[in-house]
Amino acid sequence: MKRFRPHALVLLTGAAFLAGAAATAQTSAPAQPAPAQSQAADEAKVLARVDGEPITALDLEIAAQDLGDRLPAMADAQRQDYLIGYVIDLRLGAKAAKAAKVDATPDFERRVAYYRDKVLLDEYLQKQVEQAVTPEAAKALYDETMKNLKPEDEVRARHILVENEEDAKKVVARIEAGEDFAKVAGEMSKDPGSAKEGGDLGYFTKDRMVKEFAEAAFALAPGKVSAPVKSQFGWHVIKVEDKREKPLPTFDEVKEQVEAYLARKAQQDLILALRKDAKIERLDKADGAKPGEKPAEGATPAEPKKN
After folding, report:
1. What three-state secondary structure class fits 49?
2. Is 59 a member of any domain?
3. How many folded domains does the chain comprise?
4. Best CA proximity match to 138, nearest among 287, 253, 234, 298
5. Where is average pLDDT lowest: 10-24, 31-45, 233-247?
6. 29 or 35, which is more confident
7. Which residues form the domain of 96?
8. Beta pairing class for 229-231 and 153-162
């Protein structure tokens, strides 16, 4: 989804720096291309030709974006070879289709107009995202969110799951006799996920477990073992290892989610603003309201069909 391009300010700064350094040095060495020029040169590099028509690195980039997840995972050299072959086939197929006058229909023109609008919107939204998703905006959103988060209690516990109360009592008896909880869990627990880990469930908040289990676990002090606890899964014997406040995630841990939120919000805000300022007529609605608007005064919304 991400398609962030270098910011214009970064490119301009780099170009100005190179120009200043060249002037200060006062040498006759050939000037180095500015970053923007280098990028343009890379994109315009011709990698193949089809009936004289060039295929450039930018053509491959566009094809890769269009293919998305359908592009097989492969090494860079193989990827380039695959994309060149794909664009060659695309050009040949399009040329043959044009010769067959596939494009000489009103339906085709409609489809071209639709995809032109779609590409224009995609590019416009991407520019809005680039403006909205900045390091400063991401950090500010993170700081504001963390400031309003209330700390949650967590428990780290082990458990042994068995089918009936009698087996659960046998587990408790073995633990009280001094046997290691993890060893007994490995032998008796019916929970395939945690048995091989000595019954260890890691840290969890109260809302992540079924009610009976959570209440028993959070009532125990660290190091203590519960009496048998019944839940919808069977009978549990629980040992609490530790209690703590759930640590807040660091900025680096949630940076991608923060940026994704900012991107979605920027796109949504733009679309809502465009709708607000436009004259939209919904001819499929009796009241002519815009999508999301309340019906006009006195209008009666359509009633559902009665069975």
Report:
1. strand
2. yes
3. 3
4. 253
5. 10-24
6. 35
7. 34-104
8. unpaired
